[in-house]
């Protein structure tokens, strides 16, 4: 099983908190964070409500344009064939050393997106918690 766990840790005196990604596969795992606010998670939630999924959805966090070595966290989801399968791609790097980078892909399904969306909605409602995207 492959899994992306998304966790949010709010700063007590600010609207910004740490958005953590923890990704694991059968043979490796990695963890990274970047600063985020709950409004960014609301954008993710609204896109996850679309069915059928349609075009690729990609969310990124990082410095400047959040591309290349400025990218710290990214997750993208897209259709994978015509049978309702989805492909999730996860990329993350160390906040201070972008050469330490993890990139992986896995197959997932619509019910896994529902679980992810429900977890993200709880994070937004409670300003903390975890959400999971599972696949194979």
CATH-defined fold name: Transcriptional Co-activator pc4, Chain A
What do the pLDDT scores average to? 93
Domain module tally: 1
* Low-pLDDT stretches: none
Q: Taking strands numbered 1, 2, ... along the chain, how are they ordered across the largest sheet? A: 3-2-1-8
Number of DSSP helical runs: 2
By CATH, the architecture is named Roll
The residue fraction in helices comes out at 10-25%
Number of strands: 8
Helix-strand category? alpha+beta
Report how far the terminal alpha carbons are from each other.
5 Å
Largest sheet descriptor? 4 strands, antiparallel
Topology as a string of helices (H) and strands (E): EEEHEEEEHE
**What is the CATH domain class?**
Mainly Beta
What is the global morphology?
Answer: globular
What does this structure look like?
- The relative contact order is 0.23.
- The chain has helices spanning 38-48, 110-126; strands spanning 2-10, 16-24, 29-37, 57-62, 71-79, 86-93, 101-108, 129-135.
- The N and C termini lie close together (5 Å).
- It has two helices and eight strands; from the N terminus they run E-E-E-H-E-E-E-E-H-E.
- It has 136 residues and is of the alpha+beta class.
- Strands 3-2-1-8 form a four-stranded antiparallel sheet.
């Amino acid at each position: 099983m492959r899994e992306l766990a998304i966790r949010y840790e709010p700063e007590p005196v600010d609207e910004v908190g740490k958005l953590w990604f923890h990704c694991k596969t059968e043979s490796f795992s990695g963890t990274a964070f970047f600063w985020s606010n709950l409004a960014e998670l609301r954008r993710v939630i609204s896109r996850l409500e679309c069915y059928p999924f349609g075009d690729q959805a990609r969310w990124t966090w990082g410095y400047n344009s959040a591309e290349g070595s400025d990218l710290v966290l990214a997750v993208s989801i897209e259709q994978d064939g015509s049978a309702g399968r989805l492909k999730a791609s996860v990329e993350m790097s160390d906040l201070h050393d972008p050469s330490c980078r993890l990139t992986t892909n896995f197959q997932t399904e619509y019910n896994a997106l529902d679980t992810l969306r429900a977890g993200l909605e709880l994070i937004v409602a409670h300003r903390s918690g975890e959400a999971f995207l599972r696949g194979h």
